[in-house]
Write a structure and sequence with these properties.
The protein has 207 residues and is of the alpha+beta class. 46% of the residues lie in helices and 12% in strands. It is built from eight helices and three strands; from the N terminus they run αααααααβββα. Strands 1-2-3 form a three-stranded antiparallel beta sheet. The chain is elongated and about 65 Å long.
């Protein structure tokens, strides 16, 4: 009688964890897909939005992200153009894509570039941070225009005095009552913070 196989062979999985959850990339691991996810979050977009530059269906985007094969240069370039990445972030994705595709790149050089640039580019990190801040501000202004939001200051009375702190709120306008609806509100004097809160609330809202 043949011995029973204690670990019978199973059908191919769909690259997802138990319960249908997406596989998480460990911290400190840089892959094209992990970096793309980070840029998508920073732009307050969703992964499925890549179906526009990739000219495919929403499910195809998820299939590509859970596929073990390297992303094609066409997919990488389309994502770079759609996200509007600067030269540093774009080249980071290209280098990672080439490395995953099997190009013989010097690991030491690749690590130096991905960690902040070659020797002599000491201001690279500052320039990248500046570019990131500009992209985030652009996304906030675009959200104000797209959703016809209003950004209003708040006077927050201070206990035991006549002074007041400054807060901010984002107002959305509707034809039906109530016409003015609060999307987000914050007690800190930072318009960027309340716009970020409004974008998070928009993403969390049911479709």
């Amino acid at each position: 009688m043949p011995a029973t196989n204690p670990m019978p062979r199973k059908g191919p999985n769909n690259a997802r964890g138990a319960g249908g959850r997406s596989v998480r990339v460990p911290l400190g691991v840089s892959t094209v897909r992990a970096v793309l996810r980070r840029h998508i979050r920073e732009e307050h977009c969703r992964m499925q939005d890549l179906m526009v530059p990739w000219h495919c269906k929403r499910q195809t985007v998820y299939d590509i992200f859970h596929d073990g094969r390297p992303l094609s240069p066409q997919h990488v370039e389309a994502a770079i153009g759609w996200l509007g990445l600067d030269e540093f972030d774009a080249n980071e994705l290209r280098l990672l894509g080439a490395s995953e595709a099997g190009w013989k790149l010097d690991p030491a050089f690749l690590a130096v570039v991905l960690e902040g640039g070659v020797q002599g580019s000491g201001d690279l990190a500052a320039r990248r941070a500046e570019q990131l801040g500009l992209r985030q501000d652009s996304a906030r202004i675009s959200a104000l225009q797209k959703h016809c939001w209003a950004l209003e200051p708040l006077a927050l009375p201070v206990a035991g005095g006549d002074d007041a702190d400054i807060g901010w709120r984002v107002i959305d306008f509707h034809c039906a009552a109530p016409e003015r609806r609060i999307v987000a509100e914050t007690g800190e004097d930072d318009p960027r913070a309340v716009l970020d809160a409004a974008l998070r609330a928009l993403q969390a809202a049911p479709a």
